[in-house]
Structure formats: C-alpha cells, structure tokens
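During the reporting period, our protein records have gained a structure token line. A sample record is set out beneath this paragraph:
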Amino acid sequence: MKAYKIARTIYFIVGLVEIVSTALEYTEISQYSKPLLMPILIYYLIERTEGRVYKYHLFLAGALIFAWAGDVFLMWKDQTSFLIGLGSFLVMQIGYIIVFRLEINLSISEIIKSRFTYLVPYIVFGALYLYYVLPSIDQFMVIPVIAYSTCLISMSATAALRNNSVQGYREVLVGSILFVISDSLIGIRQFVTEFAFSHVYIMATYILAQFLIVQGVVRKE
C-alpha cells in the first residue's frame, strides 16, 4: 500500500478517536489525538504529491501548519488562547484563499460581472450569521469576529469561483463549505449558546473539511 493511502487511513482513525473521545469527554485522549491530525495531513500531502513542489503546495502546507497551531491553542479555554487560535486560523484561511486564487484567471471586476451569482449565497449567509452572533459578543471581540468571518466566507467563495472543470473542484468546494459550517458552530457555541454534541459536530465537519480541501487541491495534478 502506498504511503499516502496509509497516511489517509491513519488520519481518519485518529479523527474518529478524536470525535469519540470528545463525545465521551475523555480529554486525556483528545489532548493527544487532536494535535496529531494536521501533521498527519501534511505528511499525506507530501506523499500524495510525490516530491513535486509547486507554489500552491507551499501555501497549502503553510496553511496546514497554522491550522495545527489553531488546533493546539483552541484546546485551552482562556480568551488569550482563543484569540491566538483565531489568529492562526485566520492566517490559514488566507493561505487557502491564495491557493484557490491561483486557479482563477479573472480579475476582481471580471468576477463581479460574470460570476456574482456565485457570491450571493455567501454574502447572505455571512450577513445572517453576523446578525445572529454579534449581539452576544463582547465589544472588544466584535472586530476580530467580523474579520475572521469575512475571511472564512471569502475562502469558501474563492473555492466556488475556481475552474469547475478541473479534477477535485467538488472536493475543495464541499470541504470549504464544511469548514464554514464547523467554524460557524464554534462561534455559536463560544458566543451564543452551548448545544448538545457541539464538539462532535464541530470536529466531524472540520476533520472532513481539511481532508477534502487537501485531496481536492492535489487531485487536479
């Protein structure tokens, strides 16, 4: 069996362990399983690309490194760690936007003219989401949350604007949407209200989102 297939299997096994340990509140297991996810996915990326190094590989790997940092910092419950984790994921989202933007051969004005309908669902969702969560957020967190939410929505919108004829387009798009769902649930849990099995929903969508994005990007090769 090829190394990348082994890495893929291990990634989902560790992901399942993380989801189950989170559901059962076995934090002593989760504190080891969660930080392992992104390093395994980076190894999968390296093996899947078979030594080829393109610009978007570097941005993709860099994004995953910041995702790992975000995973680690969000394991702590204090506000400083949350802000550092949020910042790490913000950098990750920017990395993904760069990766996706490299596949769009249109200027901003051309995108607005020819593909604005792609953006409408994102604009509506973003506005409704912020309308829902902002009243529950402390004032000093308003700008960071708006900035991150804008970047998150932009990441998925950029994924939608890619060339939809390339292999992996659907994986990347679905992965980006799952990422929006995962992070939106984090915001609701963090600022509005706790809800049953929130950790399970958040981690399940996050784990699948990250894999689909990486898988979709490398499939086009």
Observations:
- The chain has a mean pLDDT of 91.
- The chain has one domain: 3-219.
- Residues 108-133 form the longest helix (26 residues).
- The two ends are 20 Å apart (CA to CA).
